[in-house]
Amino acid sequence: MTLLTGRFGRAIRATGRFALDLVLPPTCSSCGEEVDQPHSLCPACFVRMHPIGEPRCDQCGVPLPASTHLGRDARCVSCELHPPPWSKARAAYVYDEGSRDLILSLKYADRTQNAIILARQMNRAGRDILERADWLIPVPVHWRRLLERKYNQAALLARAVSRLSSVPVFVDALQRPRATSRLASFSAEERAKEMQDAIRIRPRNAETIRGKRVVLVDDILTTGSTAAACTQALLSAGVETVCLLAAARTTPDTHDDISRPDLSED
Ligand SMILES: [Zn+2]
Ligand SMILES: [Zn+2]
């Protein structure tokens, strides 16, 4: 099997997979049932996904009940009281039973093609922020995690959104020089402290992003502490505005579940 490791092996396996795609019927990206189109969901999985539409908070993207009274800036009460550092946030789906398999298998199980499905809805949900964006910048992972997983799922999502929106990706604009602990069990204050200085702009990239409008891309938006650290790094480098675009976000109903291991921000 040693022959099938390294770049050569990857190429062979990729060719094999491509050949299989030609002869085998496409399957649902979530459950594996047969479907008509590649990179799609079967009807049963499709109805379990909950896209976030209006009304939602303009600043954090959380879905709101139809009867909600929105403040002057269409923000939720939490954003009115404690405004996050970014300008606007959009998330494609509610992070729940329906979207979880698709996102976690993108993150941990090499199902990189799931980025294509998620990006379609991210492109729809984020249309207004993408129209004004100069760069898509993925939330970075620490190199050790990159070695474990072989890819950064946020970068895959950013590339897939870029193909649909034509906004270019600046894949290594940010870097994570320090590995952070799993943030799930931390209080808000501890999380902010842990993230301090954990993310920075690569010095050689500062000039390229100064004065630009950036959309920061991530897979799951939970507490927002990672996104806040990225936003602060970008704003201190002179970026004009930072908006967020996530494949899914937790809602007030799911926030209590934040200690679940699959919801840890990393
Ligand atoms: Zn399915
Ligand atoms: Zn909000």
UniProtKB/TrEMBL annotation:
**Signal peptide positions on this chain:** none
Q: Gene3D superfamilies given for it?
A: 3.40.50.2020
Superkingdom of this protein's organism: Bacteria
Q: Phosphoribosyltransferase domain: which residues?
A: 187-247
- InterPro entries hit by this protein: ComF/GntX_DNA_util-trans, DZR_2, PRTase-like, PRTase_dom
Q: Where is the Double zinc ribbon domain?
A: 19-79
Q: Which Pfam families does the entry link to? A: DZR_2, Pribosyltran
Q: Which family does it belong to?
A: Belongs to the ComF/GntX family.
Q: What's the protein called, per UniProt?
A: Amidophosphoribosyltransferase
Q: Which organism is it from?
A: Acetobacter aceti NBRC 14818
Gene name tied to this protein? comF
